[in-house]
Amino acid sequence: FSHLQKKRRAATARRQHLKSAMLQLAATEIEKEAAAKEVEKQNYLSEHCPPLSLPGSMQELQELCKKLHAKIDSVDEERYDTEVKLQKTNKELEDLSQKLFDLRGKFKRPPLRRVRMSADAMLRALLGSKHKVCMDLRANLKQVKKEDTEKEKDLRDVGDWRKNIEEKSGMEGRKKMFEAGE
């Protein structure tokens, strides 16, 4: 029994060691990615944003402002274009996912209502004006004669139950019942 516990402890310890090693490896990878992103950002900024040197004269300063405004406008246009592209792509993605959802058949089906409809009306609804044949489903049924059973004969012989009750009600009825019992 203790042998199994030692095996379990060893397996658990190994699993914990592997888990901690994987977490350490992941942490170092995240740090490397962050450093690479920072380097990439610095390269992009040095390429696209040269260091600012303020000119001394007023006219040179105005020229610099005009250049900066032109750059701002071009960047805004680029940003607007990418936003529109993104919206269009998102809409296409949404449409495709809806099509996929519909193709899988996982859309919610509406609750069905029971509708009384004759066979003729059903065929007319399905076939439209092409439907000319009239279907009378009861026409082909076999006629069955009802045979009198003994129970039904007994019921007919007894007659109307109200008549029996009226005969047995009151003093006269009790007297008849008393005499019939003797």
UniProtKB/TrEMBL annotation:
One of its GO terms (cellular component) is troponin complex. Binds to actin and tropomyosin. Troponin I is the inhibitory subunit of troponin, the thin filament regulatory complex which confers calcium-sensitivity to striated muscle actomyosin ATPase activity. This is Troponin I, fast skeletal muscle. InterPro entries: Troponin, Troponin_I, Troponin_sf. Residues 18-106 form a coiled coil. Pfam families: Troponin (PF00992).
